[in-house]
Design goal:
With about 160 residues, the chain is an alpha/beta fold. About 25% of the residues lie in helices and about 20% in strands. It has one domain (about 5-160): Glutaredoxin, CATH 3.40.30. Strand 3 (about 25-30), helix 1 and strand 4 (about 55-65) form a beta-alpha-beta unit.
Length: about 160
């Protein structure tokens, strides 16, 4: 598979979402967790979503419980938590694995496109991937990189 548009994943309600629906959009894909020290990044992700959605940015969160069991809830509980605590209106997908044999194919592909420091594996919650309008990964950001710190890259991708 050569672009993100070749993939499908389920949203929090279990409905399939074809990533081909996001052609010509800029995607910010993030593995999230509700009980992590980085969880307040939901606020920054929502701000990016609100500020740039009309220009073509799509923020997509993938809950993951692989790091310190920091997202143990059901898909419904995760969705309610994100909405209540952070006003999340961006697209949230169902809980997945991002590493190992059960890793979702989207994350297997993302990691292959933009490897990490020392290892390609996702090291923690809130690793972010910026995907350009052509469906190819532009950049990978560490969990410690706050959403607002990548605004410049998002603006550049939206204008490309």
């Amino acid at each position: 598979m050569s672009t993100i548009y070749d993939f499908t994943a389920n949203d929090l309600a279990g409905n399939p979402v074809s990533f081909s629906d996001f052609k010509d959009k800029v995607l910010l894909i993030v593995n999230t967790a509700s009980k992590c020290g980085f969880t307040p990044q939901f606020e920054g992700l929502e701000q990016l979503h609100e500020q740039y959605k009309d220009q073509g940015l799509v923020v997509i969160g993938f809950p993951c419980n692989q790091f310190g069991a920091q997202d143990p809830g059901s898909n419904d509980e995760i969705g309610a938590f994100c909405q209540k605590n952070y006003g999340v209106n961006f697209l949230m997908m169902e809980k997945i694995d991002v590493n190992g044999k059960a890793a979702h194919p989207i994350f297997t592909w993302l990691k292959k496109q933009e490897g990490g420091l020392l290892t390609d594996a996702i090291k923690w919650n809130f690793t972010k991937f910026l995907v350009g309008r052509d469906g190819k990964v532009l950049e990978r950001y560490a969990p410690t990189t706050k959403p607002e710190a990548i605004t410049k890259d998002i603006v550049a991708a939206l204008s490309a």
